[in-house]
Design brief:
alpha+beta; Alpha-Beta Plaits; 5-stranded antiparallel sheet; 27% helix; elongated; ACT_dom
Length: 173
Amino acid sequence: MPNTIHRHLLSALVQNVPGVLAHISGMLASRGFNIDSLAVGETEDIKLSRMTFVVVGDDSVLEQVRKQLEKIVTVVRVLDISSNDFVERDLLLIKVSAPAGSVRAEIRELVDIFRGQIVDVGPEEVMIEISGRENKVQAFIERIHPYGISELVRTGRIAMVRSGCTNNNDTMK
């Protein structure tokens, strides 16, 4: 039975030193792995950063990515988050055409339904912030699209394994 294609969510705890992001993304690209989503940020330890990324492929692709990451000296730990019970978030900032009047009221109602917030108001546009699971953010984009999107930016997915739910699918050096 052939492996099925999945979106794998990986977390790599890395040393917080210059060039780590370039090294890791370059290594993955040179081996033909595409990064679908990437987020990097500080952790509770100032010496470490967490890279959370999504790669698409079957289980053998996931295993190859993990093996390649584990070879990198600055990578401390790799965790396949998607094999655990986890909480994930994606953040969206979006500018939408919103002339004063009934259209702006419709947009405000849609933002409320998605539990977002309007973070900036201009004469003809509003800027909206939405956070949540990737499918929620995507659903909002689809619903707001008819109003006219002038600019859109998203973070990569971030995720954490729920307390007490870690499988042994992580590798620590």
